[in-house]
Amino acid sequence: MESARVDAWVWSVRLYASRSAASSACKGGLVHVNGKRAKPSQSVHVGDRVEATTPGGPRVLVVTRLLSKRVGASVARECYEDHSPPPPPREERLAMPQRDPGAGRPTKRDRRRMEKLRGRRR
């Protein structure tokens, strides 16, 4: 095999959960091959650089082996070199104050204070 469809390859190496999701990502401009926007039917060859925006973040891969069918995760890792940037640090979420269980329904005054705290009211 000298080439493979880019949508099939990114699905095969487990960047996307389904082939249709991979195809939609290509159509939406989320997959680039060698710096150019890729259509789902575009061919990918060994040595090509594939950049994809996935649900887990941006990925930059260099093709080392071609696949047309989905394989196990350990085999999929052998089919590319990962040049992805490190993931950004997780932002700590602010803990929202909560009412005590059994405290009953909030009063109108309590609701106004909660809305003000959430930034929905002035």
Task: Tell me about this structure.
This protein has 122 residues and is α+β, with helices and mostly antiparallel strands. The protein contains four helices and seven strands; from the N terminus they run E-H-H-E-E-E-E-E-H-E-H. The strands form two sheets. The protein has a five-stranded antiparallel β-sheet. Strands 1-4 form a two-stranded antiparallel ribbon. A hairpin with a 2-residue loop joins strand 5 (49-54) and strand 6.
Identify the notable features of this structure and list them briefly.
122 residues, alpha+beta, Structural Genomics Hypothetical 15.5 Kd Protein In mrcA-pckA Intergenic Region, Chain A, two-stranded antiparallel sheet, 20% strand
Number of strands: 7
Query: What percent of the residues sit in helical stretches (DSSP H or I)?
Result: 25-40%
How confident is the prediction overall: mean pLDDT?
A: 88
CATH superfamily of the domain at 4-82: RNA-binding S4 domain
